[in-house]
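Final report, results section. Input specification for complex C-07:
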Amino acid sequence: MNSFTYTRATAVDAAVREKSADDGVKFIAGGTNLLDLMKENIERPTRLVDINTLPLTTIDSTPEGGLRLGALATNADTAWHPEVEKRYPLLSQAILAGASPQLRNMATDGGNLFQRTRCYYFYDLATPCNKREPGSGCSAIGGYNRIHAILGTSESCIATHPSDMCVALAALNATVRVTGKNGERTVQFADFHRLPEDQPQFDNTLAPDEIVTAIDLPNEDFSQNFSYLKLRDRTSYAFALVSVAAALQLEGNTIKEARLALGGVAHKPWRDSAAENLLKGQPATEETFRRAAAAVLQDAKGYGHNTFKIELAKRAIVRALKQAAEGTQHATEAFKNSNP
Amino acid sequence: MSTTNYIGKPTSRVEGPAKVTGAAKYAAEYNVPDLAYGYVVSSPIAKGKITKIHADEVRAIPGVLQVFSHENVPSLAWFDRSYKDDVAPGGSPFRPLQGAEVKYSQQPVAVVIAETFELARYAASLLRIDYDVAPHDTDLETKRDDGFEPGRGKTGWVPPPKPRGNPNEALKNAVHKVEGEYIHLTQHHNPMEMFASTVEWLGDKKLKIYDKTQGAFNSQQYVTKVFGLSKDDAQVISKYTGGGFGSGLRPQYQLFMAVLASLELKRSVRVSLTRQQMFSFGHRPHTLQYVELGTNADGTLAALHHHALHETSQFEDYTENVVNWSGMLYQCDNVKLTYQLAKLDVYTPQDMRAPGAATGSFALEIAMDEMAYAAGLDPLEFRLRNYAERDQNADKPFSSKKLRECYHEGAAKFGWDKRNPEPRSMRDGNMLVGWGMGGGVWDASIQKCAAKVTLTADGHLNVLSGANDIGTGTYTIITQIAAETLGLPLEAVTFTLGDTTLPEAPLQGGSWTAASVGNAVKETCDKLGEKLLKLAQKMAGSPLKDASYEDVQFVNGQIRLNADPTQAVVIRDVLPASGEKELTVENTMMPNPASQLTHSLHAHNAVFAEVKVDPELGTVHVTRVVNAVAAGRILNPKTARSQVLGSVVWGISMAMMEETVMDHGFGRYMNHNLSEYHVPVCADIHDIEVIFVEEEDDKVNPLGIKGLGEVGLLGVAAAIANAVYHATGKRIRNLPVSIDKLL
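Structure output:
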């Protein structure tokens, strides 16, 4: 069988040492994506280092008054954590919009950052894919690209990042704590993932020897006016065609602070600070939201099957901002009572 | 009330406990000793030639037993007829591993056999194969003008009837007219259970084969003809099937591979397909349809034209009845029905739940909705006004037809009379509400079927017939029929199926199993009852002495006189008194040809659907569906309801999600997994009501059964698309109704 060795890391620095010593090492936590990729022969690690026993499972307050999510806290524990629910409900909603309860029970917060794209061609070894096999070409451009990116694409790759959780983390200004050979550093969430450019094989900016130990949420309050709106082909267990994390701080009807990030549209969670600036200081009206939406999508490019995403994203942004402003997260509860 | 009357009573599945405890074994779960495992290698190209298979590299891996491909497959059956199964279409069946030619993407080109599944899979990933690639043609859109009318189709296919009346003239003169093109892409069955065959080598070319199939006898026939085995040496067993939906009607290639490897290696072999490989064989074909309707001023149909063109492979002409139903669902004197195929570099399509009718009814029933609007009539009123009292295709009366009752009962349950016909007129908060309807017609078929029943001295009844239960409830309904016929408690009856050593039963398909196996078992039990009565009459002081079979009833473990039920003999006492150890009857039920000649035998349904649509985002929720079905006698309302619930979920799936998308550059399906080939999740399914309309039918077959496997799916997709039109004013003629089409 496809042979690999399997060891358990006992400490973070030991894990870093193992990783930096050998190109063939992959960390495994929940394994919800990695095992699929191994079965499909897309990932072929020679060594699996299991990091589940590292002491990174807790969710704690930070000295700055924020919240630290241990890299090995599960998505389920995070979504249902009382502090997350109370102070960062946008994150809870985003996590619960993804995958299934079984997967969220296994998947970890750190692992979620490393999910790979669900591009059809990336998964099918019969077709060229620059992300899987650099230089082989992008089959999605000119192929079937309904689920592909419309922002920040390159001639090499139009894959999207599949995570919901990461979209909320981008909007919430999270930082990622990583440890490598040279010690610890922090990465702004927006800088953690990267655009494909001419090296789509790299999903993020992490050095090969580094490990994510925690995700820090800042001491900011977006617990009242927020929305995670996910549009997809079925109501659950499908990746986003377009998702929007929107969060506002309001003074009366005036927007004091705004956060806006999109999923399903780019190679990374798509945070748009320029659009946020267009919202700040403006009245929370549909007109304002439309301007912001137009700004986000002004450089969008469709590839045929996915061109509808441009219009869909605009409408989704307006709706999410509206829901955030109104404090009505879900407008979709209407179906429950459906008798005439 | 007696306690052994089971027919028509809601009855839980008799095999339920075995299924939920895992005791029920499926084809890939028979862990026979010394098992080797196969993993199939699929072609990455759509057309071309294999120039070299570097099999030696893989054979050298310790634990790899063999690599089979066209390079080393022994000489097998020569003639096409040996490869033809019971439902093979016209043409030349695909022969796995028997030529260098690649005819479609994902074609199986080799199978690696190894000591473990994991090793086989790994070794398969290393197998290098060189190809000469040839240009392929997979796009039906380019074949619009290249369609041809099939000659000889497969069993059950009926060429469209000749035009009646003067459809062209009638269309020209019609007061109101509509026309439209209706499209759906390829769809794949994807039952839960993957295709697998476990072949147990019993020595000296004798095999016991556990196969995932909808017909053990069909698999046996294929294996014996292709590999030159006797029936005694190729027993096929299929006790449980984790869903079929038509995908198991033809023997699939894993059966060929496993038998080949077992015979060559002289050991037991299992070959299981992957989910991705479930997209490498039969499917509902990509179909383009054109419907043109015209009415008179009073809303009666003046003319109907329905045309369909669908794909088939280069090597077989798959046929299904797409347009014929349009000539019999409504009264219309000027009808033209045309049907064509186009050859593409794909695998041969295959029957998929309500084959043809699900496709045809989707187009016709949307067109009928469009026609109702054009004629200014309520869609229900329009259908009632054009109700067919007689099958005009066959020019015969229906043996029974309670479609009118389906319309009325369904509409009443749904609240159709509160519908405002104006599109975009109904709302629930911000959501647009739409109500639409549809329906359909399906054959009530019956096939020759054998059964054997044995009553043992302790009063237990063993019922045997080599049918399959693909999850529909066959185990249960046959147990009910046998128990009621001989007045025994359900617990005293055991029904054994899915084995070619049992009396022969037809394939599980065409909605004919309940009627075929049910009537066969009923007839056989009656014969056993007659024998039992004779023995009972010989008992000392028997009160039944002068009674004929018609004079008695079998209830509550007794044979009683109809005239005086207190005069009875206990069934359990009969065999001990007679000195017989057991009583057996084996019998083959032949369908009565008379009723087929004199009457049109069909089931019908009417579907009402509600959708709620977000006007800005285009998200659709199917919030309510009422499906009223007239399908003769309902044997078990509980399993019957499940059948129709499943049909409605499938209809929602067809309407809203399902499509297998081909990248024509590669000639390859790209969403070949359940992550990207979407079917509904629980959150997509809301209220579903199933109504069974009373329909007695003494002509269709003795038990009055019409079958439920397919009829429930008809018109569901159309009803939903019509509801979406009512909600949004947007007419979607191209399934699925995905979010991008509603922006």
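The first strand of chain B starts at residue 35 and ends at 42. Chain B touches chain A through 52 residues (CB under 8 Å). This concludes the modelling results for the funded period.
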